[in-house]
Amino acid sequence: MPAGKLGALAPHPESTHPRVKLSTHLSSKSLPPTPAVVDYASKVRSWPMYLNNQIGDCTAAGIAHTIQAWTAYAKGLVTLPNSAVLRLYEAFGYVPGNPATDNGAVEQDVLHYVMQNGVGGHKILAYAQVDHTNPDEMKAALNLFGSVYLGAGIPQSALVQTDAGQPWTVEQGSPIEGGHCFVLQRWDTTDAPMSVVTWGQLQRATTDWWMAYGLEAWVMISPDWFQASGKTVTGVDLPELGDEFSVVTGQPNPFRSTKPKSIFCLGLRDRIKKW
């Protein structure tokens, strides 16, 4: 299967687009141990391309792939139609049939939009940034939230490796072709432990590859995942996360009805710039 299109734009700077950091809300006392193998991919037998072989809608396709994974491990697999993914991409300026408008999107913007508007009837309650330079935190995030929404600069070598059915490994000097969004769904103990969903398939990658080219990582908190995880996420202080998220985004805390009271949250409000 040939590699598809790219389309993840550079992440926003934190100075203009504040975000909640997942690590701030992880509890070392109640955080469950991360298994050697974390697998939220095996129950999904087919990952659609979601038009990403034709247009640069990888940021929208990644949301749809995440919904597949969540629902496969909850009450039953939901595969969104291409039309729903296309509508999500259109929200960021794409006009079907006009290549000049096929310019990709910023992952944080897509997450914010899906939180407010949903896609195919599915919304997220909140989202938080994962430390993409910390493989242990990324693996723990996958274990806790069932998917991790990733962004990377894709070297030319990765496109060749994808076409050849090979894992993504580092090839020094390979030029970067552009930004790409994909989702982490499995982490095992092999030499290429990361399995991500992109271009309609599972693609393996080494940790060294991710450390060389990874740019950002996010988790989404969704009712779809609560159905699989038992209405909570063990080891994460969701009410406190929601307090900070409310201040950062201006949205109500989805995990409790009271307003944030922490000094940190109240101080953060002064430097927020809405987008």
Description:
The structure is a single chain. Residues 258-275 have low confidence and may be disordered. This protein is globular. Helix 1 (58-72) packs across helix 2. Helices cover 31% and strands 16% of the residues. The protein starts with 37 loop residues before the first strand and ends in a 7-residue tail after the last helix. Strands 1, 2, 3, 4, 5, 6 and 7 form a seven-stranded antiparallel sheet that branches. With 275 residues, the chain is an alpha+beta fold. The chain has one domain (22-234): Cysteine proteinases (Cathepsin B, Chain A), CATH 3.90.70.
Structural features:
275 residues; alpha+beta; Cathepsin B, Chain A; 7-stranded antiparallel beta sheet; globular; disordered C terminus
* Major β-sheet annotation: 7 strands, antiparallel
Which term fits the overall shape? globular
The CATH topology comes to Cathepsin B, Chain A
The name of the CATH superfamily reads Cysteine proteinases
* Mean pLDDT score: 87
Helix content: 25-40%
User: Would you tell me the structural class of the helices and strands?
Assistant: alpha+beta
Which CATH top level class fits? Alpha Beta
Q: End-to-end span in angstroms?
A: 38 Å
Number of domains: 1
- Amount of beta strand: 15-25%
CATH architecture: Alpha-Beta Complex
Order of helices and strands: EHHHEHEHEEEHEHHH
Give me the number of helical elements: 9
Low-confidence stretches: 258-275
Write down the Rg: 18 Å
Tally of strands? 7
